[in-house]
Each structure stands twice: as structure tokens, then as C-alpha cells.
Amino acid sequence: MKTEDPRIGRVRALAAAYHAPDGLLPLLHDVQAAFGHIDDIFVPAIAEALNLSRAEVHGVITFYHDFRRVPAGRHVVRLCRAEACQARGARAIEAAAVERLGVAMGATRADGAVTLEPVYCLGMCATGPNALVDGVPVSRIDGARLDRLAAEILA
Amino acid sequence: MSATTDKLVRMVNQIATEFEGQQPGNAVAATWDHLWHFWDPRMRDRIVTHLDTGGEGLSATSRAAIARLGSRAEPQSQTRATEFGVDADGNTESDAG
Amino acid sequence: MAWRGEIDLGTPPAVSQAMVTLTIDGRRVTVPEGTSLMRAAALIGTSIPKLCATDSLEAFGSCRLCLVEIDGRAGYPASCTTPAAQGMAVRTQTDRLKQLRKGVMELYISDHPLDCLTCAANGDCELQDQAGAVGLRAVRYGDGANHLDQAKDSSNPYFDFDPSKCIVCSRCVRACDEVQGTFALTIEGMGFASKVSPSQSEPFFSSECVSCGACVQACPTATLIEKKVAETGTPDRFEVTTCAYCGVGCTFRAEMRGEELVRMVPWKEGKANRGHSCVKGRFAWGYANHRERILSPMIRASIDDPWREVGWDEAIAHTASEFRRIQAEHGKRAIGGITSSRCTNEETFLVQKLVRAGFGNNNVDTCARVCHSPTGYGLKTAFGTSAGTQDFDSVMAADTIILIGANPTDGHPVFASRLKQRLRQGAKLIVIDPRRIDIVRSPHVEAAHHLPLRPGTNVAVLTAVAHVIVTEGLVDEDFVRDRCDRAEFDDWAAFVADPRHSPEATESLTTVPAESVRAAARLYAKGGNGAIYYGLGVTEHSQGSTTVLAIANLAMATGNLGRAGVGVNPLRGQNNVQGSCDMGSFPHELSGYRHVSDDAARAMFRALWGADIDHEPGLRIPNMLGAAIDGEFKALYIQGEDILQSDPDTRHVAAGLAAMECVVVQDLFLNETANYAHVFLPGSTFLEKNGTFTNAERRIQRVRKVMRPLNGLEDWEITQKLAQAIGYAMAYDHPSQIMDEIAAVTPTFAGVSYDRLDALGSIQWPCNDAAPEGTPVMHLDGFVRGKGKFVRTEYVATEERAGPRFPLLLTTGRILSQYNVGAQTRRTENSRWHDEDRLEIHPHDAEQRGILDGDWVKVASRAGDTTLRALVTDRVAPGVVYTTFHHPATQANVVTTDNSDWATNCPEYKVTAVQVGRSNGPTDWQERYDERSRRSRRIEGVAAE
Description:
The complex is a heterotrimer.
Chain A: H1 6-15, H2 24-35, H3 43-50, H4 54-63, E1 75-80, H5 83-87, H6 90-101, E2 107-108, E3 114-119, E4 131-133, E5 136-138, H7 143-154
Parallel strand pairs in A: 1-3
Antiparallel strand pairs in A: 1-4, 2-3, 4-5
Helix pairs in contact in A: 1-3, 3-4, 6-7
Chain B: H1 3-22, H2 27-38, H3 41-52, H4 60-70
Helix pairs in contact in B: 1-2, 2-4, 3-4
Chain C: E1 19-24, E2 27-32, H1 37-43, E3 69-70, E4 89-91, H2 95-110, H3 126-133, E5 159-161, H4 171-180, E6 185-188, E7 195-198, H5 214-218, E8 224-226, H6 227-232, E9 237-242, E10 251-257, E11 260-266, H7 279-283, E12 298-299, E13 308-309, H8 312-330, E14 335-339, H9 345-359, E15 364-366, H10 373-382, E16 400-404, H11 408-411, H12 413-424, E17 428-432, E18 441-442, E19 445-446, E20 449-451, H13 458-471, H14 477-483, H15 486-497, H16 503-510, H17 514-526, E21 530-534, H18 536-539, H19 544-557, E22 567-570, H20 577-582, E23 589-590, E24 594-595, H21 599-609, H22 621-629, E25 635-639, H23 643-646, H24 650-658, E26 662-667, E27 679-682, E28 691-694, E29 699-703, H25 715-725, H26 735-745, H27 754-760, E30 762-764, E31 808-813, E32 838-841, H28 843-848, E33 856-860, E34 865-872, E35 880-884, E36 912-918, H29 924-936
Parallel strand pairs in C: 1-4, 14-15, 14-25, 16-17, 16-21, 17-20, 21-22, 25-26, 26-27, 31-35, 32-34
Antiparallel strand pairs in C: 1-2, 3-4, 5-8, 6-7, 9-10, 10-11, 12-13, 12-27, 18-19, 23-24, 28-29, 29-30, 31-36, 32-35, 33-34, 33-36
């Protein structure tokens, strides 16, 4: 028999606090908080614990952009693409960010340094272009601010 | 004892044991009735012959039931254990219900 | 997808007594409250365009094609999700609606390959139909993003999944959830990226999919489509017929092109299956054209000779002359027959008629001997009828369900889907089974109690349940007083109340925690409508009949009989095992379960048949074999049953068959029994004959011939020829005449005829003047026998018990994809799911023996030994091992013993004491048998493969 990935035991331990089916979302949050992502190999254990099918768990994980199936980079930059930020120059900032960070939109750098993702409105439209950098809002991004951010991230 | 006889002895003892639990006090009659209604005449003849030659392995209830079988008396054609849709006068009814 | 012309009302019916009246396009219609506007419109012939709606699934409201306008309401609500209301005025076709629908359809088509002419669903595609219905003539959107380059998944052997044609209506996902209850499909992602995903974006074959076909049926496009349709083209006609696998009795449309079967699609009107199917009935019919099917009669002087192909006349004449010779030399009772529970009622009736009237004895038996004969005995004793009390629909009214010794998700999958639907609605489940079967816990279904008893202790557990019911005052006193024999009840109640029957006293024997037994008993007695469903885990024991009586006792004591939602429900094994029993296949009973000693019944047959019937019972299958070894039984006509593989103690069966002078096997294939046969008569499949099958709910349904028999004759014609050849006249032109004869001599079938079956679709017996349309639920106002009979159920331990030499208990069962001996399913792609039998063993027992998952192991009992590979799992309890018996190479029945039920001789398949150890390869018996089998299958002039 194949040896089980030790993380799966921890997933089961987290799942013990919940009951199907209403426990699925909070459990997914817990798992992502614990591991940074919800690996596909966790899904059978989650499904088993909550008495759901693997398909159902997969459907929920993939429906929400905030659930990750693969680990993110050490830093996560989420740039707003919504209308107000676009009106304030977000498209140019996005192009610049792709170049400075050396990663395509929606991807993680091969060295794992950073993940760049789109987000659709952070609720700070008056101060755009906006971003969340490792969960911290950053406003009025211009070329200089982007340079500083990139330098800190890639340091 | 032949393999077939041995098997019949086990079968009749099993039936007798069951009726001893199910109908204490009536186990001999119930066993006799069952053998008559469910066993081919060759099986009955063989077990009767076995009893006549000593009846090795047979339980007391089995022996009594087989002895009754050997008397050639026949139970009623439809007994309580096997009756089906029979009214008080013995007529076969439909079993709609 | 729906058959062209089949009416799809869009949403399921509403169940309400209250009615509402509204107008749709100015026409008045009155419907039950809760009915959707779409359905209300469809009921008056107005079909509103739709894609995501179909009447087998709850409304979903996603496709936005079925928009309507309602006076006084703003906007354009979807008609599938909008319930009809009193006084509503609805318009289904306005300029604005036309424009909206055309716009929606244009978007769908903009992301759909326009390859209709070469598409497998061309002419049978709802998307195509609806594009026509909304008048789409052009698509303005060109080169935008699309899903057209997605790869096709051909992993399932029976259907393809082509996501490039998918419109993401979710019908497949919903069918898997709502109808099948497996939840194997989902929509992955969101928005434009949404797509159908089996499990975790896997190929269908490796996903959780059980290949029931519900998704394929639900798909409105060619996204999910049968491979056979893609290969052959769309069917052009169909016949409604009945599946020939299990006792559920699903009805199907056999969809044909010429004489070629294109697909089997579950028939929506079918009352047993309600439009659902499983992987066997839906897809596993290819055996009918398998290259190993034998189409010419064959004979041989000795079982060591090769077969010689002969014509029908020679084969029949040879058989008849052998039968006559043997009777002349060894007496009238030296020959017999076995009817087939796979064949029709009419064919079964003819075989027993041939034996009783033609052979002049009662040596006729059927495979029910080895499955549900204790059901016949037990229920006849308790209630007066040898059959289950309910229809399948009844489960939808059950509140508490006891499942004992049955594994419906594998053995009776279409019923299991109904059961799971009811459990998802909130009914409670109690499982009594040594194994943690799937339904104990599977997505959205979880048993309230699982009682994992030690194999062989059913009677002790059920008597303990009765103890709790009686001693805790849970008896339905009114029911018992009105409906049952009081003295017998009092005797029984005193018996079960004895402290030695308490759950605590029997716990060490059964290994079931006493508190679980008490909780289960309370739930069954007081949890609303209580229904008991059971299978061969009840009957195939030394106390099989006693267990059936114990079940009947529980149902009577709690008043759970005589209405919908309750009852005693045997899940019968074979498609027509109920029917074969009804038709008088037992050596002691004439059709309609009248004992051969019944003078009046015999007189009726004598008048019609012109032959005297022996008033003493004949031999049962195991006794026939024993008598053969003793030289008293010499010839056997076996229609459609493989006793060598399916009956217990294979070496005894082989010795019995080898001792006979003329064994005649009538079958589709050279089965294992044919290795010991002197005559082989090629049989016909269920697709090649007319007749009827009777399912587990006593439902008689038509089997309709959709193609000519490849072997030249339907099975009843073969029996008729044989009867004529031995000098007993039979002259039927059509099976309907046989049914007329059955009705004439069988009170419970008095009202049955092919005309009535065609008119009503199906009939549940009893059907007679008192119940002209049949009887869905029996014993409504009283038991057939009069008063219900309580019987003491004293536990008697089987002689087969674990000890130092054989410390483990072997129990056996089935798997979804294979059917019994596998003669049919092994000759289909179903073997891709299950190509060998495995021995399930608990990790503890495996470790003790140094057995790893996948190792070859030897299983030995006092009867024999065999080898197979191990599957290490905690699904079985320590001390218990389990295997299926679908593959002849496994020879599982070499290990099972000649122990049997005390009343019926039904073999004790479910308990064999065994030892298990590592092994290097096949046992001596397996090697010898393999060699015999290879030699025996030689046919003169046909090269071995």
C-alpha cells in the first residue's frame, strides 16, 4: 500500500470539527489557512469526512477564486481590474507589474517569489489604481510606487 | 452410512431441532408433516430404511417423526404450515387482499 | 436524450390536492398548485422552448429560453421555475419573447460547433430542435473566445463525453444527483470557464461515475452520447421491453435500426424503474452478439468427447430418445428438469409442464432454490403468500427502513437510487449486515444505525429486536388484535420476552452492541412507516426461513403491513425468479403455490393437460445431484442455469452431473455446467423472444421480441419441440396462448392476458375479478391466510463455525458491474470495472498472515480450496472475509459447503468457515478443472482459439 501524505491526516483532524454539508466552506477556509492552498489530494479526505462526493468538493473549490489548488508564491499581489481602477490607469499599471515582477497575470513566478492575480474591485474606487499586497491594501499605485513594491517583493 | 443418508440425517435433525424451538410439544408432528410435504418419496424411503436399520445419528424427535412417516399415513393435503388461500370449507380462494 | 415525439413536460408533477386555474395564451388550464407554468402549458399542448428543463429533474432556471410574460407582472420570468397561480394570464409567444429567445439561442450557438450534419445526434438533438423552434437563422458573433477545442473523453466503454458540444445546462449533473444519487459530476469553475467535470476533472471511467446512463439520457446535445449511436446512427423504431438482469425489472425502450439494437433507454412510463437504469440493463447487452454464443445444437456420447454440431431435429430426437430410454430402464422418476429464472414466465411454465405432464414426475426445481426459497416458505407461512407485500413506489412513503442482508447499490441499483432519494428526503436507515456496504455511508446518505453482526446470527439479532419491541411496550396492539392470531402472538411475545433473547444476552454471540439493537428496535417500531427490505444475506443461511419468519414477526408486531410505506420486501435476485416460483417451478408446488397434494388443484391441471400429476413432491436440485451419485437419477434438462458455477460445493455438483447419463443444457454459451453435458441446445436472448417477466414487486411485464433469434428458436419453442418428441402434445403458436393457460389454472393470474398487459403496461398479481388491475400492496384489510401467524424463532447455531482449522468466516456477494455467474456481463465491457473476484480481508487478519493488498491467497474450507487475490480493507470486520463469485476461474463455490436452510435446502452461501494464507498460484482443483473445461469445450471442426 502507498504511504499516505502526512498532510491528509491533518486535513482529517481539521474536518473533525464540521458536519456535512454546511461545514464545507468553513473547512475549506481552515484547510487553506493551514496549508496555503487546498491540494487536489486533500479532496478525498474532505469528501469522506463531510459525506460528500469528490465532485461536489471539487466544484466548490473551483467555483471560488479565493481557494487555491496550488501553492501561491511567497508574496501575492492582487491588482484591481474593475472599471473605476481601469479609468484611473490600472491597465498600464498591470502591464508594468507583469514586467517588473517577471510573471504573467494569473501566474506564479517559477522561483516562487510572487503570484500576480486580478481582483475585481476592492471597494476603494476613489483612490485607484488599487491592489492588495499580501493582504494589505495599496492605493494610488503609480510607476514609482510599483517600483518600490517590486523591489521589496523581489528582495 | 452413505453420503446421501448422512446428508438426510443431518437434514432431518436440522428440521427437528427447528420445530423443537418453534413448536415445543408439537415438534414430532410438525417434522413429520414437513418431511411429507417437502421430501421426494425416495428421500423419505431412504430415511425410513435408515431408522429401521438402527437410525444412527438421528435425534429423538427425528426418530419419532420418521417412525410416523414409515406408517404410510398421509397428513391432510393442505396443512396449517402450508395452507394457501383456503377458506374454512377447504376451497381454494384467490389471494387478493 | 428524449426520444423524438416523446412528450417532455419540462418539470416534474406537483403533488397537491389544491388546484389552480389560469390561462395560457388565452386557453384555460387547471393544474395542481405548485405546477410550473412550463408544465401547465405542456399539458395543453403548448411547448415553450427550453434547454435546461426536463421532466425527470427539478426545475433549474438556467438556460433562460423558457421566458414568458405574465399580465400584471414586470419582466420575463422563466416558466420552468414560476409556479402557476389562480387567475394568472400567461403569454408564451410575443414579439419581445421571440426576440429574447433568439438572442439567448444565438449566444449558445456562437459557442457550439456547427457540425450538425456529421454529428452523432443529428436529428435527435434538443439544441438543434430548439434553435429551429425559436427561429434562429444567423449567428452574428464570430471569432470570440469559445470552448470548441476541448478534448473528447472516450474513457467510458459505452458513452463519449465531448465537452466542445456542451451548453453547461447542468442536466447531467442534476441527473447524477437527483436521479442516480451518486453526485459524481459537478460544474467546475465559474462564469465562462464553467465546465462539466466528472469528480476532480477526471476521465469518466476513473471518476466516481457508476455508468448508470442517467447523464447520457439527460443530455440535450451530443455532449454525452452512446458510442453505439455514434457508430451506428440514430435508431428509427423502438419496442418497450423488460430488462433481463435483476429482480427490479426495469423497462426499456429497445431502440432499433432494422434488426440492429442501437441502444436501451429506460422507459419513462416504467413503474418499476420510473425512467432510471443501471450499467447492466442500460449498456451490458452486447453479449447477445458475442462470438462465443453458440447457435447450433450439439450432442456427444460422452462428456470426454468433443461436441458435434447437429440440426435441431437430430438434437431434439436424440434428447427425447435418451429421456425415454432412461425412464424405461430406471423408472419414471429418474429424470427431471430445472426451469430458468432468467427465462420468461411462459417458458418456465412450459418446462414444469413438460416435467409434470410429460415426464410424469415432480422433479422440477429452479434457481430460487439457491436464493429466495426461504422467502417463499416463510412469507407463505406467516401471511399466506410467497411474495413481497409492496410495490417499489412504496419506499417513497417509508419513514424508517431496515435493510438486512442486501446490498442494493450493487445488487439492485435502480431500487437503491429510489431508496437514496427517500433517505435524502429524511427517512431513517438501519443496516444489518456484516459488511459496511456502500449505503451505510455514501454522499448525502448515512445510516442511523449499522449493526455489523457476525455472519450466521441473523435470527439472534432479529429476535433481540423483537425482545426490545415486546418488553419496552412498542407493540402495535391494535394491529395485533385485529389482524393476527392472538394465541400465537401471546406465545411468541412470551418467547421473545425471555431475558435470554435480550440484546445484552446475545451481544457476545452477535457482536452487535446491545445499545445499537435497542436503538434500532425503537426507531423501527416508533419511527413512522417502517419498511423492511432484505436479500440473500437473510435467506442463504441454515436458518434462512426462520429469519424470514422473524422479519414477518417484526412487521406484524409493529403494525407495519397493509399500506404504502411499510411491508416486508424481499429484493429478488433474478429478473424472473418471482415468476419462475409463481409458475410452479418447485418440486412440491403447482403454479400459484398450490401444493402437489392439493387434490382440487391437480384435478384442474388433469382436466386441462390430460395427464395425471404425481401427488408427492419431487427432488430439489441438491437432492437430484445426490440421487445421481446414488444411481437413482440419470437425466436432467437444464434451461438457462449454470448450476456448476452458481450452486454450492462445486465438487459435489460436478460429481452429480458426471454421474448422469444425459445432461441437457439449454443456454446462450457453453457455461460451466455444459462441461458435463451431453446435449447442448442453444437458447435465445430476451431480445429475441416474446413473453413476460415478474419482478420483485410481483409486477408482470412484457418482454417483446425486437429481433429474430440468432439460434433459430425462442426457448419456449425448444421446450415444445422436446415435449412433442417425447410424445406429449403441445401446440402453442405464441406465448400469449401459454399465458392464457396460466391464467386459466392459476387463481392469482386469472385476470392476466397480453391484451390486459398491453392496456395497463404492467400488472401486479394477484389479478382477478376482485382486483382486475392487480394489487400493488397486499394484505390491505387482512392477510391472505386469514390471521397473521407469529412463529417462535429460536436461534440455532449453524454447524459451520469458525475453529482452529478454519478460523475465519467467508461470506459472499455481488458487485454492480457483474451479474451472478457473469455469463452475460463477463462478455461485455462491464468487465473493465471488475475483471476478477478479490478476497476482502481486514488489515488485522491480513497482517497476521503476512498478506499484502493484491497478494495471491488460498482460501480453504472443509469442502475445498481455491485461490484468488486479496483486497485488504476495513469494510469487513476482523474475522470475516468476503468475495464475489462472478468469475469461473475463482471457483468460489468450491469452498462453500453443503449446509443449507432447514426448511428449503437453500444453501448456506453466506457462512463458510475458512482459513486464508498466501499462495503461489492456482490450486490442484483449479488446474484440473481448467484442463477439463478446455477439453470439454472442443467442437468438432471448429478450431480452438
